[in-house]
Write a structure and sequence with these properties.
The protein is an alpha/beta fold and 390 residues long. The protein is 46% helix and 15% strand. The strands form two sheets. The chain has a seven-stranded parallel β-sheet, with helices on both faces. Strands 9-8-10-11 form a four-stranded mixed β-sheet, with helices on one face. The model has no long low-confidence stretch (mean pLDDT 96). It binds nicotinamide-adenine-dinucleotide and magnesium ion. Magnesium ion binds next to α7.
């Protein structure tokens, strides 16, 4: 049995991963479960999957969890220490990094330093700390297996191939719910923005998909996973989310990866890697699909993508600043304290300020930049008037 430690167990990716474990017929098991504050869901998951350890980052939740699971034989932990234990658990053959946002950086780094096989969904950790995490994994002999659908597709396409034969990586983007909407996006509500046309995901990544920041983060993620310069990583809009990624080969051929838009497929590919196993879920029916569409991203309407390329080009802690400012702005939008188009404006303003520093950063510099960017973004959000509606 291959045992998985799931960081972010109560989220969209975490629950999909548990579905993969459920469907595994005993080939996969759970070593540890970790999440933020939803202790009731963690308790139910722990009772079903019998991990060795379950942990809630929130102290009050950890306390409740400890009471709920007293006498169950399952160890309960909490806080940063609990996350680290789950990320480095000796019983874990693979660690699924699926916490949302920068909260995933340190647990992912801990898993990398422990030489773990990491199934990585938490793209923010590579955006902010890609150099540190990839170096730690390399030194400790660990591997990073991408879970993000586009990256998992590219990983599968690249397997066993000479990188010199590849001229560009192509990531597809659904374009989000506002791809075909006319007029200004300044007044759209969180409900509008959360209505993703092809994927069902957590709130943060759904908003990032609506602004296209998600694809900006993913381009940086692809750089750290596949070691190609950003000039050789392209984005194309593809509303059906059936083609997830493609390799443009030096001879002009394009090798693409297609699958139904179901995260359980790339999650299973990472958890079972290097094996491919039969899965019981929906297949692609190309004839029923009829057509697939592609178009170029509209950078004027969706400036987040260009902002991410620019932050990466600047280097230093700029990508960490981009990521942290975006998290604060997205949260403010979800709480109706900030308008939709102001999300990217806030991120751009924070990047234009003095927070980001150049040079190859260590983890302390990255976490300091993250904290400073959060403060700067919160200040800018307070200075703006959210649109009065929704
Ligand atoms: P989600 O909001 O549904 O779940 C987030 C999980 O993280 C929850 O279990 C929550 O308890 C936990 N968490 C939040 N803050 C925490 C903290 N401070 N400490 C410990 N745990 C904390 O998010 P999601 O949609 O599952 O996304 C998770 C990650 O996967 C994100 O980085 C996202 O970009 C990436 N991803 C998601 C999808 C998707 O389909 N949902 C696809 C590709 C990549
Ligand atoms: Mg993706």
């Amino acid at each position: 049995m291959r045992r998985v430690s799931i960081l972010g167990a109560t989220g969209s990716i975490g629950e999909s991963a548990l579905d993969v474990v459920r469907a595994s017929g005993g080939r996969l098991g759970v070593a540890a479960l970790a999440a933020g504050s939803n202790w009731r869901k963690l308790e139910a998951q722990a009772r079903e999957f019998r991990p060795l350890l379950v942990t809630a980052a929130d102290d009050a939740a950890a306390h409740e969890l400890g009471r709920a699971l007293a006498g169950s034989g399952i160890a309960v932990a909490g806080g940063d220490e609990g996350l680290e234990r789950a990320a480095t658990h000796t019983a874990a053959d693979v660690v699924l990094s699926a916490i949302v946002g920068a909260a995933g950086i340190l647990p992912t780094l801990a898993a990398a330093r422990a030489g773990k096989t990491i199934a990585l969904a938490n793209k923010e950790s590579l955006v902010a700390a890609g150099s540190v995490i990839t170096a730690a994994a390399r030194e400790a002999g660990g591997v990073l297996l991408p879970v993000d659908s586009e990256h998992n597709a590219l990983f599968q396409l690249l397997a066993g191939r000479d990188a010199a034969e590849v001229s560009r990586l192509v990531l597809t983007a659904s374009g989000g719910p506002f791809l075909r909407r006319n007029g200004s996006l300044a007044e759209v509500t969180p409900e509008d923005a959360l209505r993703h046309p092809s994927w069902s995901m957590g709130a943060k990544v759904s908003i990032d998909s609506a602004t296209l920041m998600n694809k900006g983060l993913e381009v940086i993620e692809a750089h750290w996973l596949f070691n190609l310069p950003l000039e050789r990583i392209a984005v194309v809009i593809h509303p059906q989310s059936v083609v997830h990624g493609a390799l443009e080969m030096i001879d002009g051929a394009l090798l693409a990866h297609l699958s139904p838009p179901d995260m359980r497929i790339p999650i299973a590919a990472a958890l079972y890697h290097p094996e491919r196993v039969a899965l019981p879920w929906r297949r692609l029916d190309l004839a029923a699909l009829g057509r697939l569409e592609f178009s170029a991203p509209d950078h004027a309407r969706f400036p987040a993508l260009g902002l991410a390329y620019a932050a990466f080009a600047r280097g230093g802690t700029a990508p960490a600043v981009l990521n942290a400012a975006n998290e604060v702005a997205v949260q403010a939008f979800l709480e109706r304290r900030l308008g939709f188009t102001a999300i990217v404006e806030v991120v751009a303003e924070v990047l234009a300020g003095p927070v980001a520093v150049p040079g190859l950063p260590d983890i302390d510099m990255i976490m300091a930049a993250d904290a400073a960017a959060r403060e700067a973004a919160a200040e800018l959000v307070r200075g703006r008037q959210a649109p009065r509606r929704g």
